[in-house]
Amino acid sequence: LVPNISNNIEVQYILKQNYLFSISYSLSKNAIYQTATQDNTNNSITLSPYNIDKSQTITVNSNLTFKLYDWWDFNFNGILFYDKIHSNTPKIFQENISAQVVTTNTFSLSNQIKFEVSTDYVSPSIQGSYKTFDLLLYNAGISKSFLDNKFKIALIGNDIFKTYKIVAHIYKYVTSD
Length: 177
Hints:
Number of domains: 1
Oligomer: single chain
Radius of gyration: 21 Å
Strand content: over 45%
């Protein structure tokens, strides 16, 4: 493996301190991806890190915060990705458009106690030689602040419904012979 070199550019616009919009472009040379290697002598497949010649990503992002009521804040984060991966060794060429949507609802039960529920959805995306299926995740937490909000204690549950399962389809194997 050789080091990954990335060049990135991003433009952001913030409106009324509650709405953020951005677009970014990333070009990576020698990006490192886990790649499926097929060994035909013993009929096995191994995931190994490989350098990919070139990886490009264009991202459009919006992060919007709304105060629905005095006691309810809602945040929406939507991201659209265009990914393109090209490599001659291993031989991989993939393009994909994917999205991620994260919503967060924060409920103020009192001045010191807050309850938060969030969802995170990721559409199918490419990762080197394979493509992941949809991912969905639910989180919840409760927090209490102390000493004029200088300290906070929180109980957080991640993936509370055990829905976060990574399932992937391998498009192209690299053969070891």
